[in-house]
Amino acid sequence: MKAIFQQILDVAPYDYPVHLSGDTGTGKELAARAIHDHSGRKKGPFIPVNCGAIPEHLVESELFGHVKGAFSGAGKARKGRFELAHGGTLFLDEVTDLSPFIQVRLLRVLENGSFEKVGGEQTVCARVRLISAANRPLKTEMKAGRFRQDLYYRINVVPIHMPPLKSRNGDIGLLARHFLNLAASRYHRHPVMFSDAAMAVMRRYDWPGNVRELQNAVHFSFVRSGGSRIDACHLPPEIQRAAAVAVGSGKLNPASVAEAIRRCGGNKSKAARHLGVGRATLYRFLSSCAEIRPTP
Ligand SMILES: Nc1ncnc2c1ncn2[C@@H]1O[C@H](COP(=O)(O)OP(=O)(O)OP(=O)(O)O)[C@@H](O)[C@H]1O
């Protein structure tokens, strides 16, 4: 996370277009907002647009606005997102979902800084910093002919890749604790902790939904634990199941593990040695058998 944040700080003061790539939930929108907040435009608007969520026939007027009577239903003139972002930052999320027609219009705006509203003849100027993002790799889309090459080079001036959460294992604990602290302070609870077993399970899990999924899992566990210490059994069942499948060594059973931990005075590293397994294996086992509560 620190490496990404440094890239954000480096690029923020310049007006160059930034393209954020990365899977869903990796924090692309958060990064776009951080770039805006650290830029000279921070007092201006930050306008996010999810290009994939707007019905195709409305994208043009959504981005560029329309004049009164431009099409049926256009009862009054409306500003588009480009105009609304004047003096600030326009964040085009899922930019690869834009149709070829809109790609051409976008290219023209980026070249001239001006455009016409749908149905209008007057040229509108908008001084906007563009940040775009996409889950699908832009280059692949360009090579497949779905994304214009000239537009690719226009928007991909400074690329920043947001890696999947599972590839930055150290961030899992930091983020989980961060979300838990936020939840505890929001609901006026004492600071809450994760047990070692819960943490071990979270570190083993793949997080296909990335940071968003982790955030949801923390909220779920916070609710299930009643705001007290979060153990593996409080984590969402699919995460516990994934960890249990991963253990699968067959060497351990709850009774022998509880006994070993008791004999080792609660020291799990010693208990793991005692059982002849690695510490990580023991933690994985504990996470899948959260009911083990060895008596001292
Ligand atoms: N480093 C981080 N610190 C705190 N919260 C984070 C971090 N990264 C992501 N999040 C949180 O995770 C959630 C998902 O982030 P975001 O919406 O920015 O992802 P995204 O990559 O834009 O997702 P999508 O591609 O699905 O739109 C948000 O609630 C965001 O606040």
From TrEMBL:
Biological processes annotated in GO: regulation of DNA-templated transcription
Domain of life of the source: Bacteria
Pfam families in the record: AAA_lid_14, HTH_8, Sigma54_activat
CDD domains on file: AAA
Gene3D superfamilies the UniProt entry points to: 1.10.8.60, Homeodomain-like, P-loop containing nucleotide triphosphate hydrolases
Domain called Sigma-54 factor interaction: residue spans: 1-223
PROSITE patterns found in the cross-reference section: SIGMA54_INTERACT_2, SIGMA54_INTERACT_3, SIGMA54_INTERACT_4
Keywords of the record: ATP-binding, DNA-binding, Nucleotide-binding, Transcription, Transcription regulation
ATP-binding is among the record's keywords: yes
GO-annotated molecular function: ATP binding; sequence-specific DNA binding
PANTHER family cross-referenced by the UniProt entry: PTS-DEPENDENT DIHYDROXYACETONE KINASE OPERON REGULATORY PROTEIN-RELATED, TRANSCRIPTIONAL REGULATORY PROTEIN
Protein name as it appears in the record: Sigma-54 factor interaction domain-containing protein
